[in-house]
Amino acid sequence: GWGSLPTRDRLARCHGLFVSLLQAEQAHKVVASYKPSKFDRKILLWTGRFKTEEEIPPRIPPEMLDRARNKARVKACYIMIGLSIVACFAVIASAAARHESLTSWNLAKKAKWRKEAALAAESKTK
């Protein structure tokens, strides 16, 4: 036990135990050192981290804001994907309403190019 150790070794052992306890306690406490801006507060609310703006503390851990920003990025990407799909269907629907297809549009464009090329060839031969 402790009685057989010299005094300096006892102190070193106690100091090591104290330091490891202190480090363990600090690992659980994250320093809230970042003051969120108005935009950061909106992100925290939009991602569901806090329900109201009054709940947001004056200082938050940077890791909390990083997680909220990542969540916001993912949400924004999903929204953009959804809007792109909706836009694709809107273009298809508008073409169908005018009774156009890509094939007919392509054929008309190629016919126009052939006509222009023929006119250009005629003007060169004159």
Low-pLDDT ranges: none
- The computed structural class is mainly alpha
Percent helix range? over 70%
How would you state the average pLDDT, rounded?
83
SSE ordering = HHHH
Largest sheet: none
Distance between the termini: 115 Å
**Secondary structure: number of strands:** 0
Question: How much is the radius of gyration in Å?
Answer: 35 Å
Residues in β-strands, percent: under 5%
**Tell me, what's the shape?**
elongated
> Helical stretch count?
4
Account of the 3D structure:
This protein is mainly alpha-helical and 126 residues long. Helix content is 72%, strand content 0%. It is built from 4 helices and no strands. It has helices spanning 7-28, 38-46, 62-97, 102-125. The longest helix has 36 residues, at 62-97. It is elongated and about 115 Å long. The model has no long low-confidence stretch (mean pLDDT 83).
Notable traits:
Family with sequence similarity 162 member B; transmembrane helix; 0% strand; DUF1075; mainly alpha; 126 residues; elongated; transmembrane; single chain; membrane
Q: What is this structure's SSE topology?
A:
Elements: H1 7-28, H2 38-46, H3 62-97, H4 102-125
Summarize the structure.
The protein is mainly alpha-helical.
